[in-house]
Amino acid sequence: MTMVNETGAGKTGAAISEFLKRPLVIALVLIVVLLFAGNALSPGFASGQQILRLLIVAALLGIVAAGQNVVILGGREGIDLSVGGVVSLSAIVGGNVMNGADIGIVPAVLACLAVGGFFGLLNGLGVTLLRIPPLVMTLGMLGVLQGLLIVVRQGIPSGQAAPGLSSFVTQPFLFGLPGIIWLWVLIGVLMALMLTRTVFGHRIYAIGSNEHAAYMAGVPVKLMRVSVFVISGMFAAVAGLCLLGYSGSSFANVGEQYMLPSIIAVVFGGTSLAGGKGGYTGTMAGAVLLVILQSILTTVNIADSGRQMVFGATLLLLMLLYGRGRAMRA
Amino acid sequence: MAETGSAKAPTPGGFKRLIERYPFLPALGILIILLALNGIFSPNSLSYRSLTGLVSTYLALIMLAIAQTYVIFAGDIDLSAGAVVSLVNVVIIVLMEKMGGGGLAVFAALGVGVLAGLVCGLINGIVVAGLRLQAIVATFATSIFFTGFALWVMPVAGTPAPALFWRTYGSKLLGLPFVFYIVAALAILLFVISRTRLALQLLSVGDDAQAAYQTGLPVTPIRIKGYLLCGLFSALAAFCVTGDTASGDPLVGGKMTLFSVAAVVLGGSALAGGWGTVVGSLLGALTIGLINSLVFFIGTPSEWQNFVQGLAILVVLMAGILVGRRARA
């Protein structure tokens, strides 16, 4: 096989097929295909205005997925099921701190980051000090957060987004794009720099691919693992604030819709759930892909039942495209 | 982690050996403590009548926890279990209604319900074990599909179950509540399954799939069988839900999925597979039920109840894992 491919043409062919198998490329190709398909199904789907709206929704998902991405990269079955609860809680806390006034935005951001970081810290401590599997720890935390949401909602009103925050998320900010999209791009650049250029980023990959080797090499494994959960909590908090700006006021369990989709976006971005392999650029494309898919299904005029069945089946098909686990070999 | 290299204790103590043989002992201990606490705060809650009520309310979760256990044995997970419960619930309700609600209709509907559960399990098995997709994301995708199907069968909740069905579920037979007969039948069923090779095979696949494959075990078919068992018990869980709520709801099971996973972990089974017991999951599901009733009996204000429940479940989850690991390390 390799012998045959030694010719120049074979090499290029192999290089092209290798290129086409890269998760980011798959996601981008699918995004273009889906945009054309959407436009064919309902003309105007791929108009600039629509694409902008899609990108805002994708940014919300993408910001949650950034934290999820870091936790998953950190390995040891890393996963954060509590992000949905943090998103909801952050939206409520933010709404009450700013209470519809622009002057409250900065305190609200700080308060939300503190809340997200706190629950991330608890997750991280449970996972490292008590060595609870991340799925169990964050699942338990989700239950706590959902209970806390009920308590908070009983005691205080749902709060109001400040006009500044709302326009940041929904109105043009720079070059016709809303601030949230710039924020997302900034997060994308920072994530890429962190993961590829900093010691911290390399250490995330190190603990994700071989925790024991990383420990032997002097990586502070526990500190790193706590950090990834704190980062995840903070990203979820930022997303909660943006969601508040997007919808004007918070409502019960707004965040729940982000829990599992954030994991799917990471998977569609080519990050392995086993940890240690992948990056955030793909995840951003994965988030856009997921949002476009959902949006196409809402424009098509079918019953909710059919829509969900098509969505579930399409997700499975896409997962097949992204490559499957290795077959058993003796 | 750092501890991997440390030497194992030379001779395991009696307690250790006991837990190694019966991994559900910590769960049983927690359950007894919770029962005692329930009794202290509300002596009435330990009455025959209240306990029967507890079992009939949480029988569905028990069934679903058992369903989840078999896939977790093999190191897999089923996030669609709750959606399967919803699907089977609406399928049997619609069938019973269409067929007139008589005895024959009920039996036919239950037969179709079991079949539906098995088909869902087969789909999950093929997708996860056959096509080798990640269990967490793949079963989430199938859960969306199953929920869509349930919504197609019954778009809006509310169709009542025929009186014959729910009256039987809540009835008494020869002086004993009907649910006791279900529990007895369940015990026999679990005993029979534990006598087959399948449970052990699932555990060995979960312990080390590669090693299991090299010893000649058909790993993929075994994992698919695990999902089939999961589908079967999810259908049984749906029957209990239907008996308890007496109506159809295309979203009724959604919230149960994560509780079923929690119940399995509470029961002392390892989420990574290869270690666990079905009895533990049963106790884990009852633990969740007892926590909920205890939170009620100690007079928690209603808006605080979910929070205290969540916190208690988290604490018990941690405690169970810590005790279990101490025994195994």
From TrEMBL, chain B:
GO MF annotation terms: transmembrane transporter activity
Membrane topology summary: Multi-pass membrane protein
Residues spanning the membrane: 22-41, 53-72, 79-96, 102-123, 135-154, 174-193, 226-246, 252-271, 278-298, 304-324
Keyword Transmembrane helix: yes
UniProt key word Transmembrane helix: yes
Cellular localization per UniProt: Cell membrane
One Gene Ontology cellular component annotation held by this UniProt entry: plasma membrane
Top-rank lineage group of the source organism: Bacteria
Location, primary (coarse class): membrane
Signal peptide residue numbers: none
Alphabetical UniProt keywords: Cell membrane, Membrane, Transmembrane, Transmembrane helix
Pfam families reported in the protein's UniProt record: BPD_transp_2
PANTHER family, alphabetized: ABC TRANSPORTER PERMEASE PROTEIN YPHD-RELATED-RELATED
Official protein name in the record: ABC transporter permease
Species the sequence originates in: Metarhizobium album
